[in-house]
Write a structure and sequence with these properties.
Helix content: 40-55%
Radius of gyration: 23 Å
CATH class of the largest domain: Mainly Alpha
Structural class: mainly alpha
Number of strands: 3
CATH architecture of the largest domain: Orthogonal Bundle
Number of helices: 14
Distance between the termini: 69 Å
Order of helices and strands: HHHHHHHHEEEHHHHHH
Oligomer: single chain
Shape: globular
CATH topology of the largest domain: hpI Integrase, Chain A
Strand content: under 5%
Length: 317
């Protein structure tokens, strides 16, 4: 099997052993992992191999104690707990794959547990803050129409940023106020679209909006049916959409508080605040487990208690 200490790999830190590349291919083809997940695992594998290399260790020579030492090393570097946990999960997955394929004598990660990640509460905007954000987009040119549609769809549907930029024209049914999203693991779901988001999409797709950015000749396959386009007429990237959100967050006075995922958090929290069933929110957001959605009920309960303590005359000690 490939050794991370070989000359080729040692000469180029970004070059991964063949066994690792085959593991990544297996994750993509057999497990259906999303491109963003694969890229994160690639970074984790690169970090793992870089740690092994100066210690003279090949993947087939790793023992459980080595993984334990690696975890301790990651913690000392000050990485976030979630980053450390994912790095351990990636290393365990890699060694399990290699063991099952018979490429290494034993699975060194079988007895290693991923560090627990402290449960964090989503940072949702208040409803007045969302209204200020959505009202901040001025103008009626193509870019204003696009940016307004992006913000309205993110908040109105709770889509992930990758799901938003992956939308195709055939995924959007404005007459029925529905869109089709492809979430983690390419899982498909149908999401309702509110009237404000529908209106914003209608304006964006009308003459003067998206058609004004469409080039005479599409440069890349798949750009022609992209819902959201960049200034060059190509499909808008995750980074491009993130910058759109950041820009209007700054204009609305939300600089430092706003990301695309905060709009997703806000969508879920506000729906629960207004009495939505948690199973319906789970389905809309594409959560595999309702336990993920239940985090938002804690946010709503905290807000209820805060409002009670601030307003009820017998709540103040």
């Amino acid at each position: 099997m490939s050794d991370p200490a070989t000359a080729d790999v040692a000469a180029d830190p970004d070059l991964l052993p063949l066994d690792v590349e085959e593991w990544l291919s297996w994750l993509a083809t057999e497990k259906g992992r999303a491109a963003s997940t694969l890229e994160a695992y690639r970074r984790d594998a690169r970090r793992w191999c870089a740690w092994l290399r100066p210690r003279g260790l090949a993947l087939d020579g790793v023992r459980e104690a080595d993984l334990g030492a690696y975890v301790a090393h990651l913690r000392r570097t000050g990485l976030a707990p979630a980053t450390v946990a994912r790095a351990v999960v990636a290393a365990r997955s890699l060694h399990r794959f290699l063991a099952e394929e018979g490429r290494i004598p034993s699975d060194a990660g079988a007895g290693v547990e991923a560090p627990r990640v402290p449960a964090g509460l989503p940072k949702a905007l208040s409803e007045p803050e969302v209204n200020a954000l959505l009202a901040a987009v001025a103008g009626d040119d193509a870019f204003a129409r696009r940016d307004r549609a992006i913000l309205e769809v993110l908040y109105g549907t709770g889509l992930r940023i990758s799901e938003l930029v992956g939308l195709r024209l055939g995924d959007v049914d404005l007459e029925s106020a529905l869109l089709r999203a492809f979430g983690k693991g390419s899982k498909e779901r149908v999401v309702p679209v509110g009237r404000h988001a529908v209106a914003a999409l209608v304006a964006w797709l009308a003459p003067g909006g998206r058609p004004a950015l469409a080039p005479e000749q599409w440069k890349r396959r798949g750009d022609a049916d992209a819902v959201f386009l960049n200034r060059r007429g190509g499909r808008l990237t995750r980074q491009g959409a993130w910058l759109v959100v950041k820009r209007w967050g700054t204009v609305a006075g939300l600089d430092g508080k706003l990301t695309p995922h905060v709009l997703r958090h806000s969508c879920a929290t506000h729906m629960l605040d207004h009495g939505a069933d948690i199973r319906a929110v789970q389905e809309m957001l594409g959560h595999a487990s309702v336990s993920t959605t239940q985090v938002y009920t804690k946010v709503s309960t905290d807000r209820l208690f805060a409002a009670y303590r601030a307003a009820h005359p017998r709540a103040v000690r």
